[in-house]
Amino acid sequence: LKNCKLTTDIDNGTVTFVPTYYGVPAGKKLEIVVKGDGVEVAKQTVACVSGAATTIKIENPRLWSTFDPYLYDIELRMVDDAGNQYDYVESYIGLRKFDIRGNRFYLNNKPIYLRWVLDQGFYPDGVWTSPSDEALRHDIEMSMAVGFNGARLHQKVFEERFHYWADKLGYITSAEYCSWGCNWKLPEAQFNFMNEWRDCIERDFSHPSIVMWTPLNETVWVGNEACDIAAFEWGKHVPSYVNFVKQLGEITKALDPTRPWHDTSGYVHVDNCEIVSVHYYMPSPESLRDIMHPDKENPNKLGTQSSKFIKCEYNGQPYFVDEWGGFKYVPKAVNVEGWGYNGINIKSPEEFAKYIEDQAEVMRLDECVAGHCYTQLTDVEQEQNGVYTYEREDKAPAEVLKAIFGKKPDWSEF
Length: 414
Fold this sequence. Notes:
23% helix, 7-stranded parallel β-sheet, 7 helices
């Protein structure tokens, strides 16, 4: 066995298996066993054919969710007619559905308000390398302890073990890529990006905790001459870039039609994007409300972020404030000077919580907002705007922050 792509259909109570093989000796079969709480709930044996789909019915399926991250165990055996075993793999699957209806996200056919945090996956003793498996799990547990139900995995392809713990703990995420700095005018850069992004999707496809694909970040530089990356003739190269993003979306949806397509977190979206996300670092709740609703004559017309060459219009998709906050608070002296947004220098845990609460409430009470993502989980190398310090120490009592970040609109079931 080389791989097995797992797709769930909760409306019909099925799991579909699509295995691929390094090689198949003649006459071999694949035995598929699904277990719940150690008890066999389904079994099927099929011929070993690379790429052939097998769908198995699960009676009375128990769904995977943020409240109940239930996982079924899976056993895959390559056998011959006499029952001799040639290969054996154990895995798991969570039966869940994540989709978009109008301007809302839905988990298992129920509306869900995304209460996320930006996670850059930095560690003081490894920078972008986690020091241990326990550290990966601990970061998720810290996030959930202050009320978040998921994360933007920012500008990094996270360790697959992180997704394992997210699956186990019921933590939903956006799987992203390290796009910043790519020279988009070069065809070979676009080609390499496309190939590596495909590898990311194929590796992580079967993780139930991943609910959307987001390959790009902050495309503010598209058509903005003030940015170095856009110093070449953007009027000439924008059509190539737009075509690239459209192709990226087509490849993503071909590889995985089950998850929403989110082309870029913040700023310039291309017209096949299913989510409109914005990055709003504002100094006050009033300024946040104003930038989200700039047209006082039409309060349902939402603010978006466009460029000189590409105009991004809101067409009723989920409106996701994918970065906000970023308030600097340093509870104790540190050796390295860092920064936060808007030059705000907070002096106490109470003031820190108040800044967060005031803006979180603006979004929670706004019927147009489908979710938000706070910047960020921990301080990192040069930023001191985390909910926790770089060493994973509290900046404010977890129960105080959980009362803020854990709050949802009345319409949300999760």
